[in-house]
Amino acid sequence: MSEKTAKIKVFRGDEKGGEYKEYDVPLFEGMVVLDAIHHIQATADNTLAVRWNCKAGKCGSCGGEINGKPRLMCMTRMDTLPLDKPITVEPMKTFPVIKDLVCDVSWNFEINKKIPPFKPKAPLADGTWRFSQEDADRVQEFRKCIECFLCQNVCHVLRNHKKEEFAGPRFLVRLASLEMHPLDVEDRLSLIKEAFHIGLCNITKCCTEVCPEHITITDNAIIPLKERVVSRFYDPIAKFWQKLFAKNDVTK
Amino acid sequence: MARLAPNTMFKSGLGTTQRKDNWWLQPVLVVFGLGSFGIYSTWAALQGNHYAFGPYLSPFYSPLFIFDWWHWSPALLILWAPLGFRATCYYYRKAYYRAFFADPPACAVGELAEHRYSGETKFPFILQNIHRFFFYLAAIFIFILSYDAYEAFWFDGHFGIGVGSLVLTANALFLGLYTFSCHSFRHLIGGKRDCFSNCSLAKAQYKTWSIVSILNQRHMLWAWISLCTVGFADVYIRLCAMGIIHDIRII
Amino acid sequence: MNYQTFEHDVIVIGAGGAGLRAAIEAATQGATVGLVCKSLLGKAHTVMAEGGVAAALGNVDLRDNWQVHFRDTMRGGKMLNNWRMAQIHAQESPARVNELEAWGAVFDRTKEGKILQRNFGGHQFPRLAHVGDRTGLEIIRTLQDHAVHQKNIEVFMECTITHFLKEGNKICGAFGYRRVTGEFLFFKTKAIILATGGIGKSFRINSNSWEYTGDGQALAYKAGADLMDMEFVQFHPTGMVWPLSVKGTLVTEGVRGEGGILKNSKGERFMFRYVPPMFKGEFAETEEEAKRWLAGDKSARRPPELLTRDVVAKAINAEVKAGRGSPHGGVFLDIASQRDVETIRKKLPSMYHQFKELANVDITKEPMEIGPTCHYIMGGIRVDAETGAATVPGLFAAGEVAAGLHGANRLGGNSLSDLLVFGRRAGLGAAQYAKENSSIKADTKQLDTCATELLKPFNQKNGENPYEVMDQLQKMMDAHVGIVREEKELQKAIDSLAQLKSKVKNVKAAGDRTYNPGWQTCLDLENMLIVSEAITRAAMERKESRGGHTRIDYPESSAEYAKFNFVLRKKGEEMRVEKEPLPKMPAALEILIKEGTT
Q: Is the pLDDT of residue A252 over 80?
């Protein structure tokens, strides 16, 4: 093991405010930022709060801001960061801080509850359904989401403008996964416009930039939903067309 | 406890961030790129002259409409359509909301402390929803510009190739790639479907949607290349028409 | 002392696959349910499951049915399984998987548009319904989104249960605390379903998350319930071995299911040498035959890389011990030479990213370095096969925390189906129990004692650092109770556990009660100690090698030990290990196992 160390500047505080504390941590091969935080926790201060579970980029618990960028601590290798200056580690700033690196993300769970559940079309006689991999591919991309809420954190509609009525990228992705589901027959388009306020998104794509699962949130989920909203609410030609060929229409 | 954190918790305000990389570079480049194109194209469109040379017609002036009752530059009669297409384009929206409106200037970078924001729900930005109609017009332009490119190979009835022929061909090609990689087109051609495998029409739509999806991944690239080619085509023809440079004939 | 009180018919502790499925079922039966989870909803260990969920749907190979699945499970468990659980599991898992589809899950598809199934170790036919290599995520998200729309489920996130309350011999409540505020919680209830998962954190090299500290097993044990089969800990053959930061992180068995092969440092495909007598003649004997199998030839037998996990883990261990290991002490797992780039990235996307981002290895071009990692415990709370009832009235258990289904070794893919099948059954059982039993008034005086115990770490002046004690415990367990065991090592472990016990009594927490990970670790340690002792004591008694339990001093399986399970019971302060004879299997099923289905 090498003798090299790195300096980590960690936010310590709660909802009332806090300060940045600097710690020295020994470096080892393949080390990630979460290892550094764990080292501080085990040796320097047992009370340093951080949320984590799988430490393999699969559960989405350890989101934070590393050198100002929203990232998962378990998937950010120390050797990809400039080590000549202290590494800043902060909680996600869009949500209220509970303590240190842990913030209150409960707002997200409330939004999720408002989404009308999956409603499948009638199954075949044997009680199952048939659809092809091509049909599955598109929604499978959205279902990769690990709910780290980094996209919610970086979205300026929530981060800067505090529009609590806006569903945010995570739940637009979830809505897309339901709306584009090959078996789903529920209609959520009016809600997407009126209740989840898709119009507040100005497609500046930060959600896509930070997604650790590399979901193309803006291009594949939000913009196609915006286009579906246009067809329903802003496009007289599409409306006329839909009336004419109602049978072939599957946008529901 | 509040559901979202108040802005007072951490430092806020335009440009505040803990990011240590050159986050400002991208908006600066966009301001420079779109700004210089905007200035040049406005100037060129207002000129009303030097837009044709031999078989070449500047894309700023195509299709060319000359009316007695119209006293201004003919470019103004048509340019609103491609301008509208680009202004409501999903890529350019991202670029100018970031670079010109700083809303946000870059990811996880602070905005102006207090300003009203309604996204694309109110006038004028609610008009972004008519992007697909501009797409229909832009698609017509692609056919016209392709015809111009074809014409650019015929010098007084004889086939030939000049540098201008190649410039106009490249322009039509890249404008085509930009136009047909449009997000609205991607929706209309098949993205609106939930199920691709249930009938032969759906399967055909799946194929076209897949191709458009691949093009769409490079929409930003096509947007910039085509912006350069269209500007360059006008510059080239203008300079030839003004006699500052000479068109080189390859054949 | 201040505490908040909640009242529900059923309390479910743990919100992974089993807990969520149990909560949904109990709520559907009309019970009011409190779902208590140690982390945020949707972060439980089920998200880590990668390869797939085993169900004999027969979508890919028509020869598959519940009988074959039952036989595979029993033989994989080295016949120590509870036969009835194995039967219920094999019969009901197809319906549970189809049900997930009805709730919105999107599995990979066959060409005919059915749910696709892949090969896995120990399964005779392609049986694992999957979504690339993130099947667990798909399942937990589907269940989570289904559960949040149930009216009578109340979710308590980031809450830890530390005590059960009993009146007479019956369960009547649970006590714990909410991490975010540090406040105490009292859940008044008729029935409790434990779905807290495993014990992996007792070992240093493991594939588990911080939650896996044996909470459910320890709570049940303290409440007087039987623990069973605790000696059977599964070391998954393929964990990452390098870099240090990710040592132990799981590499899905799906890599081998998709055709990945194991090689030693000499480049030999060594698994051909490790086929145990029980499976002789069922596996490919040459590389040529294995290749034909991969190409889809149904007359070819499966490659030996698809032997059960216990066998593969021991083989890797033996290769490394013989000096044929890779540079970082593992062996090579190679998919790059077997499948094209596109297939690998499509079927194993998260493995691709995991290696690319954490180890700078491109698995489409290079082999992975892998070695055994503590992954799962087959043993746990002894339950009734039909209802998931533990031996204490009012207490139920499902999923990894329960024992019986997997016997001495679990087959890959049988865990996710276990969660669904027995999660549902425990939900049914607990709801039924709640209907039949009126609520009991708990003696709330007990709560003061609970609270004092919880706060004890704050009152230690010169106590131990809980993280150091945890580190010592993990290293000790790795050294003495790891993948291969022997009497003198186990004795050392028992001695060390006694010392660690006094240290754990002494651990201290700094700071206050708000989101205090040091305090949480203090509380976890007590549970880790109980399950570590249970594993060690049971391992000491089982003087043979079988499935996940390997003794160098008793390297063979013994017919005598095949007749009973070891059960651990609390007698005063002492942990007793007692023999329980295996329930008798019906003759028809016995014949099925001996002769197979064809």
A: no
- Confirm or reject contact between B191 and chain A (CB < 8 A): yes
| Whole-complex ipTM | 0.95
C170 φ/ψ angles, rounded to the nearest 5 degrees: -100, 145
The reply to whether C130 belongs to the active site is: no
Write down the residue that tokens 């797939």 correspond to: C52
Residues in chain C: 598
How far does the CA of residue B6 sit from the closest CA of chain A (Å)?
Answer: 7
Query: Are C255 and C335 spatial neighbours (Cβ–Cβ below 8 Å)?
Result: yes
pLDDT in tens, C469-503: 999 999 999 999 999 999 999 999 999 999 999 99
CA distances from residue B56 to B145, B146, B166, B192 in whole angstroms, order as listed: 11, 12, 11, 40
Cross-strand pairs, A32: A77
> Would C544 be classed as within a structural domain?
yes
CB A231, CB A223: distance < 8 Å = no
Which is catalytic among the residues C75, C163, C236, C375?
Answer: C236
Domain boundary among A76, A103, A130: A103
Rounded to an integer, what distance in angstroms lies between the CA atom of residue C143 and that of residue C12?
14
Give the number of domains in chain A: 2
- The DSSP-derived string for C481-547 is SSSSB-HHHHHHHHHHHHHHHHHHHTB---S-STT-HHHHHHHHHHHHHHHHHHHHHHHHH--S-BT
Task: Assign residue C465 the CATH number of its domain.
Answer: 1.20.58.100
Residues of A in contact with B207 (CB under 8 A): none
Euclidean distance between the first and final Cα of chain B, in Å? Answer: 76
CA–CA separation, C56 vs C68, rounded Å? 8
- Chain A residues with beta carbon closer than 8 angstroms to that of C518: 41, 46-47
A98 and A158 share one domain: no
Q: How many Å apart are CA A95 and CA A58, to the nearest integer?
A: 21
State the pLDDT confidence band at A241, using cuts at 50, 70 and 90. confident
Residues 6+ apart with CB under 8 A from B28: B99
